[in-house]
Amino acid sequence: MDKNKIEQKKPGSNQKGVEEDSPLRLTADLEGNYLLDERTSEMKWLGIFYSPAGGSVHRVAKMLKKKIGADKVDMFCVNDVQADRLLDYKNLILVCSSLGRSTWEREQRDRWAKFFPSMRKISLKDRLVALVGLGDHVTYPKNFVDGMGYMAELVTGLGGTLVGKTSTDGYVYEDSTAVIDDLFVGLPLDEDFESEKTDARISKWLDMVLPEFERI
Ligand SMILES: Cc1cc2nc3c(=O)[nH]c(=O)nc-3n(C[C@H](O)[C@H](O)[C@H](O)COP(=O)(O)O)c2cc1C
């Protein structure tokens, strides 16, 4: 892909094909697929992106922000931003729920589905991405936190590096696409039936993830 990649000069851009007032680089492969590539200016340390707003996912996103330190992190609901905002950050935490793999793409309430097409046009190369997936292990034991599995597939397909994989110890479920090589691809949380475990699970996970983020 790389050797076929050509830089496109956009209107208002300088001779190098990079807009003087924009840190975005627009590249395309020879089939005409455009890829928004990494920012050329200074990136910020950590962005939390979540959806939907107003429920358990939102509450967990706020808990993460508070525990990390509100001054150290920016937080966005994906309803309110375009996918290229992800490129502003070296490190990302993506928080999603699970709505069943078949309903994921058409669920109106959850704006991740609307975010995905534009997300597929960006490159997450050199980005560390940590996932938090909410689910319900009692009602959906065969698809526990499948949404996080979907997200992991997307992120790695875009070149992102997943951090914050967690042991399945302490979780009761029958099957999950979010488990690869006996590890969850991120942090599973069940606010419906195990909310009393959430605070400790987040703290333990952050103890593992934040040092990874500090390294770059
Ligand atoms: C229609 C529907 C489908 C769901 N499917 C799954 C599922 O497949 N796997 C799972 O673990 N949880 C599933 N859940 C549970 C949600 O992921 C869970 O309740 C989550 O905390 C909801 O977050 P929210 O309050 O931010 O929407 C489903 C919930 C609903 C309403």
Low-confidence stretches: 1-22
Order of helices and strands: EEEEHEEHHEHEEEEEH
Helix content class: 25-40%
Bound molecules: flavin mononucleotide
Mean pLDDT: 84
Structural class computed from helices and strand pairing: alpha/beta
Largest sheet: 6 strands, parallel
Tally of domains: 2
State the shape: globular
CATH superfamily of the largest domain: Flavodoxin domain
Q: Write the CATH fold name of the largest domain.
A: Rossmann fold
Q: Rg to the nearest angstrom?
A: 18 Å
**Strand portion:** 15-25%
Cofactor: FMN
Region (Disordered): 1-22
Family: Belongs to the flavodoxin family.
Protein name: Flavodoxin I
Task: Give an overview in words.
With 216 residues, this protein is of the alpha/beta class. The chain has two domains: 1-41, no CATH class; 43-214, Rossmann fold (3-Layer(aba) Sandwich), CATH 3.40.50. It is built from five helices and twelve strands. The protein has helices spanning 56-68, 101-104, 112-119, 146-157, 198-214, and strands spanning 6-7, 26-28, 34-36, 44-50, 74-77, 89-97, 128-134, 161-163, 166-167, 179-180, 183-184, 187-189. The strands form three sheets. Strands 4, 5, 6, 7, 8 and 12 form a six-stranded parallel β-sheet that branches. It has a three-stranded antiparallel β-sheet with strand order 1-2-3, with no helix packed on it. The radius of gyration is 18 Å and the shape is globular. Residues 1-22 have low confidence and may be disordered. Flavin mononucleotide is lined by residues 52, 55-57, 97-100, 103, 134-136, 140, 143-146, 191-192. The site of flavin mononucleotide has 19 residues, from α1. It comes from Butyricimonas faecihominis. Residues 1-10 have a biased composition (Basic and acidic residues). Residues 1-22 are annotated as: Disordered. GO terms for molecular function: FMN binding.
